[in-house]
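hey so i finally got around to running both of the ones u sent me last week. sorry it took forever, my laptop kept dying halfway thru and i had to restart like 3 times lol. anyway pasting them below in the order u listed, first the sequence line then the structure token line for each. didnt double check formatting much so if smth looks off just lmk and ill redo it

first one:
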Amino acid sequence: MELITRSRMEKTKKYVRAAVILSLLSSVLVLAGLIGVLTYAKIQGPPPLAVPQSTLLYGSDGKVIGETNTGEKRYWVELDHISPALIEATISIEDKNFYQHYGFDMKRIAGAALADMKAMAKVQGASTISQQYARNLFLTHDKTWKRKISEALYTLRIEMNYSKKEILEGYLNTIYYGHGAYGVQAASQYYFGKDADRLTLAEAAMLAGVPKAPSYYSPLESPENAKKRQELILDSMREDGFLTKAESEITKAKPIRINGHHAHKTVETAPYFQDVVKNILRTELGLEERTIEMGGLKVFTTLNTKHQEIAEDVVEKQIEEASDIQLGFVSMNPGNGYVTAMVGGRNYEDSPFNRAVQAVRQPGSTIKPLLYYSALEQGFTPATTMKSELTSFTFDGNKKYSPHNYNNKYANDDITLAQAIALSDNVYAVKTHLFMGQDTLTATAKKKFGITTPVKKYPSSALGTSGARVIDMVNAYNMFANGGYKVKPVFITRVEDWSGNVIYEKEVKKEQVLDPDTAYVMTHMLSGIFDPKLNDYSTVTGIQIKKDATRHYAGKSGTTNTDNWMIGFSPQLTAGVWTGYDKGKDISLITDKLYAKKIWVEFMEEALKDEPVKAFKPTKGVVGVAVNPHNGKLATKDCPVQRFTYFVKGTEPTEYCTEHLGEHEAPKEKEPSKKDNKPWYKKLKDWIF
């Protein structure tokens, strides 16, 4: 019996030793496994926290003009810009021990497990904010063991590499609040029509309850459920010491107004402009399509929303609805090249083709100022005269070319360069072009004015038969307006990534390309299209809109059979308009031919309405003298028409006009009539008989 008892005791001891050894081995394995997991998480490093979110485009006034349409509304805001009440409400209802645990709340997990066992079903969750954040960032929402293990690893990596503030900020910016709103900023704007930092306690408590079941607790779809959830959260906040019982009861009684609209709608403002911006992000900044569409970028643009609205309204007002005429329009700031407005067509939905930047159309006479700038550099002056008459030119051996003026009208006499511009004389332009050499305009347009389409070496190129883009032509005129500085069209000033880091910032470098004195002389000549003093065989080309122009403007119109242009500027703003048919059909109706000029002048007047009236300031190297505009000679008091004209110093005329000498002398006094000394009765006789 004693032997049996001893044998049993020895077996028991063996089992105990084995159990202890197994326990120790298990503990070692668990510890080793834990160390291994922690080591793996540390080696993997911090996971990226970026999530798909809408890219926002801002106008120059800081207002959102558009966003990418990914089906999700996400706008990242820093924790400091989120209502403290919402932060407290979220922590109270979602993860009370958020600041104490390291990603996993073991006490809460044990409590949830016990509750599930009692109910024999999944009745209580135990996920911390860190776990939910990991799930939202990287994982699907299936319930497999593989997903749960991955979630645990991501949670560890987040907790080991990011602060609690960063985790909480990320969670609040990624959690789904229903109705396509991801993150607290999008949700605040959707439900309450305000930013996340302006939420009241009542609104914050209601919003914090939505993520548990967005459709069930949506204050828009289920106001009763949302209200009960809000009251539960307020009670929880009271228990956690975030507010008093009195504050809780007062807040429960406060009414809440629900908005139900997203803050930013899909492309409505300046859709053609926005297309250009996205293209620049792709081609010039090298950003991938996914980054542009879902990278949460903040793209700050040059668009002046006031200018854009005016441009769109003017186009709609001026062009008859039934007309098939299309247009391209661009306005720019002369000083820095900022594009302030753009219209690429009459209806973006019908035709997203951007005629302001994509269409290449004949610029007509709007090319002439580029030609005449070169002429000024080569010795021409506003007083240089050439004969305006029907002329047949011979070029390239035996080829003939006979340019015609509008309506086949000619001076059949000498006219000045100033008149040639104001009247848009074609013969003068071709003579100048051939005199300087046909390659001069080609080189000038490309090298000095930045025209991206080649100007062909033909006599007719002086009349704008080589195609050009609206954006290029407006930018060329910008150089006259700013005194000869080369500035390229600018659409984007700055780009920030989802976390606010600046990834691009535009630096406007001004390079003096044109001679400032010559540029000013050219500008003053371009003001002549509105001055009837330059009328001759025809009226100046801006006469139709002169009555509508209340400021100092300079510009040039252009006309071909299929294209109408008007480009002009004030010291503060440059704008250009092209109108025509997409298929190049001839423009025959008089009203259709006037659209470009009318759109231009109305836009300029409205856009500058609140700006001070400024004149073009003469440069130091020019001198102004009164000349007879018909012959370019210094005017005398006898000249019936005089125009104050600017010249580069040293090139002003020195010869006085002698054509009208004596024409305006004062009339000689008549000799006094001799006194009639007849007596009265003889006067009566003479009167009767």
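and the second one:
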Amino acid sequence: MTGAPHARVRVLGPLQVDDGDGPVPVGGHKPRTLLTALLVARGEVVSADRLVAALWGDAPPAGALAALRAYVSRLRGVLGPAAPIHHRPPGYCLSLDAATLDAAEFEQRVRTARAAATAGDHARALADLDAALGLWRGDALAEFADEDFAAAEAARLTELRMSATADRADVLVELGRAAEAVPELEALVRRHPSWERPAVTLMRARYATGHQAEALAAFHELRARLGEELGVEPAAPAQALYRRILAHDPALAATPPPGNLPRRASRFVGRDREVERVTAALRAGPLVTLTGVGGTGKSRLAVEVAARDRGRFDDGVWLCELAALPDGTPVGDAVSAALGIRQRSGLSIEQTVLDYLRDRSLLLLVDNCEHVLEHAARLVGEVVQRCPRVVVLATSREPLGVEGEQVWPVPPLPLEDATALFVQRARAATADFRLDPAAADAVATICGRLDGLPLGIELAAARMRVMSPVEVARRLEDTPLLGGGRGPVARHQSLVAAIEWSYRLLPEPEQRLFRGMSVFAGGADLRAVHRVADPQATEDDVLDRLTRLVDRSMVVAASGVHSRYRLLETLRAYGRSRTEAAGEDTALARRHVGYHVEFAERAGRGLQGPDERAWAAEALGVYDDLRAAFTRAAADRGRDLAVRLVAAVPELVHLRVGYEAHAWAEQLLHVVDPDHPLYPAAVGAAARGAWNRGDFTQATATARLAGGRRPLPGTARIAYPGDVLADVALYDGDVDTALGHYTAEAARARADGDRIRLVWTLYYVAVCQAVRRRPERGLPAARESLDVAEATANPTAQSMARYALGLVLKKSDPDRALALFDEAEELAAAVRNFWWQGIAMMEAAATRAVHGDPVVAARALVAVLAHWDRVGDATQQWLNLRYVARLLQRVAATADAAVLHGHLVAAGKPSPLGPAPDAPRGDPRAAEAAAVAHARAALGRIVSGHLVTGTA
């Protein structure tokens, strides 16, 4: 390690020293003790006597000082100049010059997180806290925590870790993610029963998730503990919160405006005037389009404007990125996925988006429209015309051409801002970058040659790790950039030349990897980059090259469970042009399709196993490339690969994204050989899509294409054609046919040992018995389903089984049913299984509406209305509206109940308030919208205490 410029020292766990290539041996117990004693002193001088005592205790050997000097010498060889040990009478001190200490980084991130939380940026606070807590690998100073010299520091760090964990729980509650905070808070309360802070946050979190009784119980348990152990009452914050919970303070259930804006990874530089002017334009009209060449900073400016202006939109700010879409394709599915909504029965995906947005107040940021300009312009134009409280901020290399559009060309950065950006990115590349006068002149030259284009400036600044500003400026002088700021064409050519310059500076293996990465639509992890972009290299070599590309700002890295790497769209377009010029594009696309088909099959299996949550998170991150892989496979008539992909993805897409993949299946049915072994699964996926759209005639006709053939074992739960036929029968009132099918399928699954299939079929047996009003007959199936689900450890299976058991128990044992529904909701939500989350939420709300606190029930039913509004399941929404009518009747809101009854009748739906009179039928979609609006208002009156009773 000697001579290495950087080092990393870790004490949040076992002591470890890393250089650029990994851990280095520190030595035995004595050198490790010496290093720890110096680290604990935090740069202060530690006397030789104290160091001797730390090494040998009260009985040091005769040559202790000489041995100490030998250990110091050995450590100097290990640490090198990055962390020099200095002799300073009367002892030694350790300087972390070019080294980092994980404990110091942890404390800095916690401070940053707390500052962000204080400023209201809870998303950034959460990211910083996750990064801080992720540094811990075990107990602080684990080997030495009991030693006198380290005990106080170990205790301090441990307490800070505990406090940061509590900070994280607070932030989750502020972000409206209270359910995620509850397990951690319960653990903190168990470990620290007299610490009031986590107990208070636990009260808030339980109340925010609809568990008022449990929230009050947390207070009573805290009061009992404090009384027994300390003889005191809870402090004022706990008592005040207790009173607010008793009073059903609406602010406790409030959540921040929704949205999906990304966290800003670095400080926004300059453009204050542009931010003000674009914000003013947004307030003056419904559509603003930021235009300019690639790399001019359109997207970054748009995100900054949206973040600063989000407070005026009740329904939040939503970013829809179109860059990953194939050229010229429709944009409806991408917009719906960004909004988190699904196609509604009887509507196209574009109509669904418009219907959802019609009455909402939100800012829709549509990014990178140029390659899908016609489709983007059409949908945005409809939004502008038909959604009066929606404002659209778009980015494109050319205007959309929509009526009412304000076109705002994004100018290059002025010299002062360009210089500030260069310095920021240069310091990210090398912390000791200084802007002395010579460097300032060179940076000004660089920014001028690059026409003030942010992407070009960032590429040049990344070179500061290995070059000086003067050297970069000289290189650019020798490069034929057009420069001069002569309009967008000149600036575009300047940027292309800057990218070309950066590309040519790369060694050939890095050029090859960069070209290969242009095939990915949405980025990739290391394994995918290796397998697709450069399979001839070793994975370690690919990682080294990726690291260097990230260092040079040619690739963007995003950390997570699996780090992911992507090219900015301008760089990706350049990379694609290079692959075509090199004749690599066909082979590259073939590897991309093959890899993602195999990934989809692995993910499909993983989603049915115990690691469903991890697979869901990973697969959702790959969705853009799954779409691109299908498009390529279908275009190349690679029908085997296309049908394999279609058979693999329903478990991911249908339950978590939307119904787009069902259209893929429909596209294949008439071109794939019906004898293909995966044909029944493709039929099942297509039939399920028609069923979700409410087109039962099409669903039946499609399902029958399978000719009674069953899919292969392990097929996604929703892709069985026979199940679709049974579900159509069930919704048509033919319960016996559905029950007969699922009973036979359960016997088959039991005989085959297919536990996932058995849970599904037993679930439906229980549901059928509940629909027949014989829930006691469904108890054996529901209990068996739960036993089998527990053995699978699959969260969706466990959620389904709990729902089934709750459904057949909700009349005979409502408390037990309510607990089961709540557990089912949490299990489904944890794996982003929106459909099962919704039905569990709904049955829990319905049970509370009959047996629980009406205010809590009203809040829960409002949440269910919003959920089915997003998911787009009209069948479930009408069922939920029946539950709302029952609650209104229970609390004597008879006028509101009568209005809702009228909407149910108008749509031809059964009403719990009595048989439907002879009345003209209206448009079901209009009736649904009116019913949901009235239900939401009536429930709001229950929550606020302004209940209106009496007859209509």
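quick thing i noticed on the 2nd:
The first helix runs from residue 29 to 40.
anyway thats it, ttyl
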